[in-house]
């Protein structure tokens, strides 16, 4: 079943400190007040223009196997490739902050208000990710199970995988389309698959060939977060 | 504190309204526009750039300063044109074909203008031919390319190959950047320089415009 979701802005909006963090400002930095003031404006602008929508479809392991293969560009060994065959439930998803936010960022640049443009851009990136988390939380609550989400373009899943994902999700219904280079339009959007299953399937070491080029190793945080939300078998 | 120093100081602090007010005072005092530009506005951007390099300030501080720079520039731009003041150099910027990400490229453009360059911003999804044609038509000597996807990075190589095919190497120099781009990749595809952020892009482009060797050891 394909579900279309309206994502409330409450709980999605990042904090002013998080907006600064997204722009590389550590919380310990000095002279933060003028920066926090701009972040506050960016946050308010985000609240006024966010039109969050999401789309969600459950697929079988067999069906996802074809979708994951996509155009055949994936790395030969990936965490997702090894995890999804053991999943108990798989949900394809896409979320977007909406077109108005993207337009607003461009307007601020055109008005030479660079600090506000960058603050809104940072806020929108965080909000898109938080919107994906909102959808994940929703399914987790329904299934009483914790999951981890993966997106094309990361962790060895080739970005061309977006094509198969979009063919199934048909997210045009929420104003989201795919460009020829597999980018989402509006840009401030997130898509992927949420994988649910026994805790042990989610454990992996980040020593795949592509992990060396990864700057943030976000997977460690996600696995650790999962760790705190479920009872791991020891 | 002298007026130009005050402009630089207030610009570094990101005080756009004060910079505009002081710039107006400097114009009224008949300080030549080129001096206001170099001794006030660019000097202020250099101050904030230096602090950024030392991690004493961060990107939003630099953007506040750039906004203040713009407030002052708007006032002296007509005077610079009247006086025939030449800019430090001219660069074409764009995000390569197939890529829509533009914040990094926009930030590089802002920093370059703050450093006294003239910038021709071609926007996003820019085809290789358009980079080269725009640079030639606009008299730019540097092409700056941004890509945020591993799938669009190869377009940078296409631009450099086109420059080579048309025997424009040396006349048009290239600098590349973007999240997945590395200095090794820049060397591999024959780019003149790699920049990892807006401030380093200004440094690299300054070097290239001054005839510096770049990654390839020469123009």
Q: What's the topology here?
A:
The complex is a heterodimer of chains A (234) and B (219).
Chain A: E1 2-6, H1 16-22, H2 33-49, E2 53-59, H3 61-69, H4 79-83, E3 89-96, H5 99-110, H6 114-143, E4 147-150, H7 161-169, E5 177-178, E6 184-185, E7 189-196, H8 218-229
Antiparallel strand pairs in A: 1-2, 2-3, 3-7, 4-7, 5-6
Chain B: H1 3-12, H2 16-28, H3 33-53, H4 59-82, E1 90-95, H5 103-114, E2 118-121, H6 128-138, E3 142-146, H7 154-165, E4 173-177, H8 183-189, E5 193-194, H9 198-209
Parallel strand pairs in B: 1-2, 1-3, 3-4, 4-5
Helix pairs in contact in B: 1-2, 1-3, 2-4, 3-4, 4-5, 5-9, 6-7
Number of domains of chain B: 2
What top-tier CATH class of chain A fits best? Alpha Beta
CATH topology (fold) name of the largest domain in chain B: Rossmann fold
Summarize model confidence as the mean pLDDT of chain B. 93
Write down the overall geometry of chain A.
Answer: globular
Interface with most residues: A-B, 32 and 24 residues
The top level CATH class name of the largest domain in chain B: Alpha Beta
Describe the protein's architecture and organization.
The complex is a heterodimer of chains A (234) and B (219). Chain A is globular. Chain A contains eight helices and seven strands, in the order βααβααβααβαβββα. The model of chain A has no long low-confidence stretch (mean pLDDT 91). With 234 residues, chain A is α+β, with helices and mostly antiparallel strands. Chain B folds into two domains: 3-82, Methionine synthase domain (Methyltransferase, Methionine Synthase (B12-binding Domains), Chain A, domain 1), CATH 1.10.1240; 90-209, Cobalamin-binding domain (Rossmann fold, 3-Layer(aba) Sandwich). Chain B contains nine helices and five strands. In chain B, strands 2-1-3-4-5 form a five-stranded parallel β-sheet, sandwiched between helices. In chain B, α4 crosses α5 (103-114) and α6 crosses α7. Chain B is globular, with a radius of gyration of 18 Å. Chain B starts with a helix and ends in a 10-residue tail after the last helix. The interface between A and B is medium-sized, with 32 and 24 residues.
